[in-house]
Write a structure and sequence with these properties.
Length: about 260
């Protein structure tokens, strides 16, 4: 039975809790989240060209619907942790998905995203704007790929991983002590180092405070990537040389909030 444990990858998604007038740290954690995610786009890899007989750097389509994820997933795990003290905060977000795919060839796909960022809040309790700046790590791996090398059959894995700087912001609107709406977006990459040429992500969500510590959240999230690293990798059979894809879907779940006094 495939295992899918969901906790959405959201920047500041847990701010459904009302602002705490006490000094100290507010800690938010999303332990029970589901993200109905799909993936579509193209990728290039010398090993895929060799298997398909295509010309070098031929884009190969990747399309994985949410139904495909449900039917073929081996493991899905995400978590989001956030800490705030006054106007400043930070978050860590992790998402990984491992599943069997048929495109571009039957194989196994692992897709991992990790984010860390600092937050700075402006505004009032009812209306607030937060700036964010941080880093996003991405890993894409496909295996096994059966290749014929020097007359021998071998199985290899192809992968790419990189780190993107990200900057962005979010607007939160609260309606009384229980209901909130939030819109968030960030951009990154900018061709810095070996990172993406450009990447962006966004979400829109609604949150409802159920109890003092628990809130329910639901919304929509999208992550778009444009990664390319062709320099010196055209002959590297273990490299994914480009990955131009979109991950998106609705999410839902619960968030828990703790407060640690500075006393």
């Amino acid at each position: 039975m495939p295992v899918f444990i969901g906790m959405a990858a959201l920047v500041a998604a847990l701010t459904a809790a009302p602002a705490n007038a006490e000094s100290g740290w507010d800690i938010f954690w999303a332990p029970l989240y589901g993200w109905a995610v799909g993936l579509s786009g193209t990728q290039t890899a010398p090993a895929l060209d060799s298997l398909s007989g295509a010309a070098p750097d031929t884009p190969m389509p990747v399309h994985i619907s949410f139904n495909d994820v449900v039917e073929t997933v081996d493991l899905g795990l995400t978590t989001h942790v956030e800490a705030r003290n006054g106007l400043w905060g930070a978050f860590f977000d992790f998402t990984t998905l491992s599943l069997n795919v048929d495109t571009p060839i039957p194989s196994h796909l692992a897709n991992t995203t990790a984010e860390v960022a600092l937050l700075r809040r402006f505004g009032s309790h009812d209306w607030s704007f937060e700036l964010l700046a941080g880093l996003r790590y991405k890993l894409v791996e496909i295996d096994p790929l059966p290749l014929e090398i020097d007359g021998m059959s071998v199985d290899i894995a192809v992968d790419a991983d990189w780190i993107d700087p990200i900057i962005g912001g979010m607007v939160t609107r609260r309606f009384g002590p229980r209901l909130m709406l939030q819109v968030k977006a960030d951009v990154g990459g900018f061709g810095v180092g070996s990172g993406s040429d450009f990447t962006w992500t966004g979400h829109a969500l609604v949150g409802y405070q159920l109890t003092e510590h628990w809130a329910f959240l639901a919304g929509y999230r999208i992550l778009d990537l444009d990664y390319e690293d062709l320099d010196g990798n055209q002959q590297d059979l273990s490299a994914i040389t480009s990955f131009d894809a979109k991950e998106d879907g609705v999410f839902f779940g619960a968030a828990v909030r703790f407060h640690k006094s500075s006393d």
